[in-house]
UniProtKB/TrEMBL annotation:
Keywords: ATP-binding, Nucleotide-binding, Transport. Belongs to the ABC transporter superfamily. It comes from Cryobacterium shii. The keyword Nucleotide-binding applies. GO terms for molecular function: ATP binding; ATP hydrolysis activity. PROSITE patterns: ABC_TRANSPORTER_1, ABC_TRANSPORTER_2. InterPro entries: AAA+_ATPase, ABC_transporter-like_ATP-bd, ABC_transporter-like_CS, P-loop_NTPase. Pfam families: ABC_tran (PF00005). Residues 12-243 form the ABC transporter domain. This is ATP-binding cassette domain-containing protein.
Length: 327
């Protein structure tokens, strides 16, 4: 594979990253760009190719084609230099059930040739503290709840300082309290400067935790950017109810909009028109200028609203499905 020329401000970059399983294309030529310092949500329904992508990014499975750069280094050729800088939780590590949480972490740390043995005990204690498992450090893992095992997995990824954390569905199977704890942990890690790449099939979770997101649908990357960018992917509508629908349409047309009208029996008609933006934040036609032009033309306004489709509606439109579905 020809290396990607790494962009310095990107923690992860892929070009044309593809994975085939026989006839099936699980990941189809994705170009990811994960800025350093971001909390990057990798969002998509079950089976859309998130885990397979993460496994390729970490060198756990070979890509069929495409290029990858992680922390400015080509992958998988620089795997041994890159991996010590990356903490990962992918499909939960296999813990020894009859060892305690702390003993499990010490075992994983011993197996890591980059981990200094002198500081092992302190680092294990700190990692357990970080994920709120100090009280259960001596408890055998078979007595851990799913949420505790998940947090132990994150503690394992935190045994050493990391520039990048990759977490595959870290809140899967957690109760609401556990979910909140993982979310706040991710935020505090990000505040310390760690880039966090986190996959999820839950839009609400990504909205609460992430600064950026990419949306996968059936192996394809259908959108990517800051959450603010993604919120403005769809159509914003002005909608008003008026007995003077024809006059309202005339005013909106003169302002460069393309209005349409819906008649409702026994009520005033609705007039609506898509609004355009010159920047992500800015509508070309401000609501107040629309209202004053309508009022100046004698249009009686009985209701007026600017409707932004929710992020959920936009993502459903992008992926053709919801996010809670299990396939
Ligand atoms: N080892 C494999 N052999 C054959 N097909 C596979 C293999 N691993 C994944 N797939 C298929 O590739 C597609 C993408 O799976 P992947 O696990 O990457 O999706 P995902 O978005 O992570 O979903 P989930 O959240 O359910 O893990 C699925 O159709 C899956 O069945």
């Amino acid at each position: 594979m020809t290396p990607v020329t790494p962009a310095l401000d990107l923690a992860i970059e892929s070009r044309g990253l593809t994975k085939r399983f026989g006839e099936q294309i699980a990941v189809n030529a994705i170009d990811l760009a994960v800025p350093r310092g971001s909390v990057f949500g990798f969002l998509g329904p079950n089976g859309s190719g998130k885990t397979t992508s993460i496994r390729m990014l970490l060198g756990l499975t070979q890509a069929t084609s495409g290029q990858i750069s992680v922390l400015g280094q080509d992958m998988p050729s620089r795997l041994h230099e890159v991996l010590p800088r990356v903490g990962a939780l992918v499909e939960g590590p296999a813990f020894y059930p009859f060892l305690s949480g702390a003993a499990n972490l010490r075992r994983f740390d011993t197996a890591d040739r980059h981990a200094p043995s002198r500081t092992r005990r302190v680092r294990v204690d700190e990692a357990l503290h970080r994920v709120g498992l100090t009280h259960a450090a001596g408890k055998k893992v078979h007595a851990y709840s799913l949420g505790m095992k998940q947090r132990l997995g994150i503690a394992n990824a935190l045994l050493q300082p990391r520039e990048l954390l990759m977490l595959d569905e870290p809140t899967n199977g957690l109760d609401p309290q556990g979910t909140r704890e993982v979310r706040s942990l991710v935020r505090s890690l990000a505040a310390e400067g760690t880039t966090v790449f986190v996959s999820s099939h839950l839009l609400a979770e990504v909205e609460q935790m992430c600064t950026h997101a990419a949306v996968m649908s059936a192996g394809t990357l259908v959108a990517q950017g800051t959450l603010a960018d993604l919120r403005h992917v769809g159509e914003t509508l002005v909608r008003l109810r008026t007995p003077d629908a024809a006059a309202a349409q005339g005013v909106l047309s003169r302002l460069g909009l393309v209005p349409r009208r819906t008649d409702v029996p026994d009520e005033d008609p609705w007039v609506m028109a898509p609004l355009e933006r010159d920047t992500v934040e800015n509508l070309i036609n401000e609501p107040e200028s629309l209202v004053s032009a309508l009022v100046a033309a004698g249009v009686r306004i009985r209701a007026f609203s600017i409707e932004e489709p929710s992020l959920e509606e936009r993502f459903v439109a992008l992926t053709g499905e919801g996010f809670d579905v299990v396939q």
